[in-house]
Amino acid sequence: xxxxxxxxxxxxxxxxxxxxxxxxxxxxxxxxxxxxxxxxxxxxxxxxxxxxxxxxxxxxxxxxxxxxxxxxxxxxxxxxxxxxxxxxxxxxxxxxxxxxxxxxxxxxxxxxxxxxxxxxxxxxxxxxxxxxxxxxxxxxxxxxxxxxxxxxxxxxxxxxxxxxxxxxxxxxxxxxxxxxxxxxxxxxxxxxxxxxxxxxxxxxxxxxxxxxxxxxxxxxxxxxxxxxxxx
Length: 231
Known about the structure:
Blueprint: E1 9-13, E2 16-19, H1 20-40, H2 51-71, H3 78-94, H4 108-130, H5 132-137, H6 147-182, H7 187-218, H8 221-230
């Protein structure tokens, strides 16, 4: 059993190998795009809500509520970014119960790409909120001597996000291999159920951490100081 889908080559395009990570990422993108188009095809105020639309609204409203709890302000455009992260990771992990499907999140390249998207989003949201000059000043607090340490801390956030998500997926795969070798008829069902639960938890934690990092970038200096005094 391959623990990472990077080692599984599905086919090649003009000599470029397409491994399971890339191919399954395309599948996840197609599933999310298809479901979104299917659920929202009749989206209008006069149309009665159906089960799928209600489910999607509950998920989006839940994400909006979590963002408001963390940032203490309306979610705005942040809900689009965080929702995309959550739905992509959750779908990758949930589809892992399908035989033959290897979750793209089990690849370090995918988790690194997700972490890089957060690293890029943090300054983008910070600059849109504070302006370029105001955001860059945050790296000089509490004193200019902290500049290199603040930059290192920013990079370490992305590294920790990638390793945390990748480690959780890999640890689950290793445990599954061990249990399947002990009791191959009983534990597959149990591991599938456990995988569904942990997949959702991992997606939730990643989205929450991304929201926390972005919230720190867009928070006003007065808000940041009040939070420190409260803690």
